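This section describes the prediction task in plain terms. A model, or a person checking by hand, is given the sequence of a single protein chain and must write out its three-dimensional structure as a string of tokens. No templates, partner chains or ligands are provided. The sample shown here is typical of the held-out split.
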Amino acid sequence: MMYLFHNIYGDAAELIVSAPDGVECVPWGPTAEAEAARNVKLAELNASISALPALLYWRDEVTIEDVTIPAHWREIRICDLPQPWTWEQILSLT
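The expected answer:
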């Protein structure tokens, strides 16, 4: 599962409506209910994000030249990518 965290102002509207299977969209909303739901999701994942929009995805443990990188959530800061944003562009980075 991957998680698209986005604000409610529409900059990620095209990504939201075209999200592929396996992507859950989580709004960074203006209401107390939306904020609570977002905080619950981040707590469930034991993760945080640094910008909006952002995609969180799970990366399994990997060993490269005797260095083991533990499994963890990774963040793609979509806001740093050139626009227009596409799922093809974003998923190529996972």
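For orientation: The first helix runs from residue 13 to 17.
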